[in-house]
From TrEMBL:
Keywords: Signal. Residues 1-26 form the signal peptide. This is Amidase. The keyword Signal applies. It comes from Corchorus capsularis. It holds the Pfam family Amidase.
Length: 527
């Protein structure tokens, strides 16, 4: 069995390198909040190299990760890849390069990398397993010269091991990841580490996955941008699966433009995920998505506001803030179509009533068994094996505390039968009669909602896209976002809206400005 490096968790937090400006070769370069375009400009002006950038991020990870736990594992070849990117840039033989060339990227620890790193879904059950090949999105990023920096932490097995019991951001391998804004606050999941690491400037951008809120929610809770693409716009081949109907892979970044640059690099048809990607490939514009980064992208859009149930749980202050954001959208030239209902929204919002959860349990067992069978080396070859591993290692996996109730429910399923097919048909009809009908009837370009409720409901069951953008902070400093969602293939309009809103508001701020901000708060919270 191949020997792989252990989990990267540093025993002693140093917390020395949080300065905003780095002096490199006589030049000042601000690493905190640096965008991909800033970085590429610094590369072009010889103020910065990819290797220097990687070293800066590695130092920040060493300083911050013992507290935040956003990173599971560092790629031991990251510096080698950065040096290669620098050589290519110096040689100037490749002509115009991708915006992602030389840019460090973290991947959620469910995205296969055929290298010295593990792919484990945060569980010891897959530690030491060997994948047959890179996930397709990893292949794409390697080809354009991105630097594979490491693996981000997550809610173990997407929380599917024990839904409602495993805390967001916790995994056996990584421990409890922390929201960098408020000590002890929910980092959300399951792409928690991907969002935390970007928010805390430990990496330029990251890749997450979403089945039901797993990009939008952690991005929202950690004040970063998350794009949940139309299902099939990005390949899922080589990614530990839950559901081929709902799984999608997407970018997490500090700005809309950075998220779009990453999105442009990972979209496209893939024969290994042909059914979904062939259907979605027709939506991809020939010149990519960068062209939709338009400052006045709000102008002329018709936006639908579904108040029930998306505003029902908000406190008065957050409702007031959301109303002020609607005013910003109006001022930007949007028409607001307010206070209508989506048919059967209460059923859509209840995964038991809609049949969504029952179907997901059956899909998970079938799809994860297929994934495990493709591994070159693995101690577990089926969901039943994982359950047995957990039973044999209760302390390692905190089995007594969190259990594996959902795994056991999934293991009882028998594939996709008549009951499951009817559930899938019902979800499709709920989508057709719901979001598709209101958007067509009201001639809407997008739906707008505060927080995460849109992504957890209508966007999830139909495979629709969404983008969340930082929209402010509560009194205790906890971030919240605004979500734009639409029909399949509506990414161009959503990007215009998200970018336009971001440029009009510029509400994101980094989680801490000096070492004591994070040291004092997090050390005392841990005592």
């Amino acid at each position: 069995m191949a020997v792989k490096p252990p989990l990267i968790l540093f025993s002693t937090p140093i917390l020395l390198l949080l300065s905003v400006t780095i002096r490199i070769q006589g030049h000042d370069f601000a690493i905190e909040e640096a965008t991909i375009e800033n970085i590429q400009g610094a590369f072009a002006e010889n103020k910065l190299t990819s290797l220097q950038l990687v070293d800066i991020y590695l130092q920040r990870i060493e300083n911050l990760n013992p507290l935040l736990r956003g990173v599971l594992e560092i790629n031991p070849d990251a510096r080698v890849q950065a040096e290669e990117a620098d050589r290519e840039r110096r040689s100037d033989t490749h002509g115009r390069r991708s915006f992602m060339h030389g840019i460090p990227v973290l991947f959620k620890d469910t995205i296969a990398t055929n290298d010295k790193m593990n792919t484990t879904a945060g569980s010891y059950a897959l530690l030491g397993s060997v994948v047959a090949r890179d996930a397709v999105i990893v292949e794409k990023l390697r080809k354009v010269g991105a630097v594979i920096l490491g693996k981000a932490s997550l809610t173990e097995w997407y929380s599917v091991r024990a839904i409602g019991k495993i805390p967001n951001g916790w995994s056996a391998r990584g421990g409890q990841a922390q929201n960098p804004y408020v000590a002890g606050a929910d980092p959300c999941g399951s792409s928690s580490g991907s969002a935390i690491s970007v928010a805390a400037n430990m990496v330029s951008v990251s890749v997450g996955s979403e089945t039901k809120g797993s990009i939008i929610c952690p991005a929202d809770y950690n004040s970063v941008v998350g794009i949940k693409p139309t299902v099939g716009l990005t390949s899922r081949a080589g990614v530990i699966p839950i559901s081929s109907r709902q799984d999608t892979i997407g970018p997490i970044a500090r700005t809309v433009s950075d998220a779009v640059h990453l999105l442009d690099a990972i979209v496209g048809f893939d024969p290994r995920d042909s059914e979904a990607t062939s259907e979605a490939a027709k939506f991809i514009p020939a010149a990519g998505y960068k062209q939709f980064l338009i400052k006045d992208g709000i102008r002329g859009k018709r936006l639908g506001i579904v108040r029930h149930p998306f505003l029902d749980s908000l406190n008065a202050s957050n409702v007031t803030t959301f109303e002020s954001h609607l005013d910003i959208l109006r001022a930007g030239g949007a028409t607001i179509v307010d206070d209508f209902e989506i048919a059967n929204i209460d059923i859509i919002s209840d995964s038991a009533k809609s049949g969504e959860m029952m179907l997901l349990l059956a899909e998970f067992k079938s799809s994860v068994n297929d994934y495990l069978k493709e591994l070159k080396v693995s101690a577990v070859k089926s969901l039943a094996d994982i359950i047995k591993f957990n039973n044999n290692n209760p302390d390692l996996e905190k089995l007594q505390e969190y259990g594996q109730d959902t795994f056991l429910e999934s293991e009882k399923t028998s594939g996709i039968g008549e009951k499951e097919r009817k559930a899938a048909e019902n979800l499709e009809k709920l989508s057709q009669d719901g979001i598709e009908k209101v958007m067509k009837d009201y001639k809407l370009d997008a739906l707008v909602a505060p927080g995460i409720s849109l992504s957890m409901t209508v966007l999830a069951i139909g495979g629709y896209p969404g983008i969340t953008v930082p929209a402010g902070y509560e009194g205790n400093g906890m971030p919240f976002g605004i979500c734009f969602g639409g029909l399949k293939g509506s990414e161009p309009k959503l990007i215009e809206l998200a970018y336009g809103f971001e440029q009009a508001t510029r509400l994101r701020k980094p989680p801490f400005s000096e070492p004591l901000d994070i040291t004092r708060e997090f050390i005392f919270a841990a005592v």
